[in-house]
User: What shape does this take?
Amino acid sequence: MSDFLGIHGTALALREQRLQLLSANLANADTPDFKAQDLDFTTALRSALQPDGAAGGDAIGSAAQGARYARPSGQPSVDGNTVDGEREHALFAQAALEYRASLTFVESKVRGMLTAITGQ
Assistant: This one.
């Protein structure tokens, strides 16, 4: 199945990982000393597609973990929290749009395969 979806199945899973990180940032916007996290998508994708990496979901999880980083704050905070609410919402909206685009592509590939199988 991964050959059928190619890079897009991996990209979709990594985009989901990034959305989870960004939503955790939003959920912890008021938590003292919480450090905003993000995922370098390009680095994670490159790592997940390495032939010498782990197989399946393990490659995706390992790639996502390796591409995580603490995002520095643009504004100092008294409580040490580095989450900027407006920036997080904008990043989350962009990441959700990218996830939806990847999902639409995967759906199109699957729909095309079903059409080929059923002839309809």
